[in-house]
Amino acid sequence: MTEHNQNGTLSPYKRVLLKLSGEALRGDDGTPIDMDKTDYIASKIHEIYELGIQVAVVIGAGNIWRGNMGLGRGMDRTTADHMGMIGTVMNGLGLRDALERRGLAARVQTAIHMNEVAEPYIRLRAIRHMEKGRVVILAGGTGNPYFTTDSAAALRASEIDADIVIKATKVNGVYSEDPHTNPDAIRYTELTYQDVLSQRLNIMDMTAFTLCQENNIPILIVDFWADNHLLRAIKGESAIGTLIR
Known about the structure:
The chain is an alpha/beta fold. Helices cover 35% and strands 18% of the residues. The protein is built from eight helices and eleven strands. The model is unreliable at 1-6 (pLDDT under 50).
């Protein structure tokens, strides 16, 4: 029989924030929101939820809109960023639907008020939802232009007292070099914040990274698409992903 940790879960973490890129929802044929991909993401969230973990999700909008597309044509940066924030709400609604079709209760909260489709982001309400067993999808970025969804993830993780930020990627952690071009690249099992800074490793944008560092929130980089990697990493297996703390 598997023993639970002191927090009552099968993981060292009680509350996690999962950061997903918008591209995770994009179909192989270019469809912005692919239902199969969305269902797959929901299944992975369901797996960690079943461990007894409280789950919050921040998702980007790169599958729908990237601000630099507009900036390259002279678009105002604030307008471009607001369009991206609205795109994250669309992705959040699609993910909520996929979770609910799996039988999970889920709520979308957004930093941009649109009460007809989502709740406004309220910190204590988000925490209460998770305590009641609901997955909370935090959309709309920080509500301000000039901040990435990485920064939104770090900020929300700090606010809701998440034990860790899990950044979902397509590689099994952080490597000394690009593992796709150098098969001998070394995977780091664990790094300190200072290691990341001194080696100039591209983990997330500096604002987001600094927020995690200042609030002592670990960051777990993991291959979201590999079978069981997320589940194994969140159980604390060092053979999977890279832990920064």
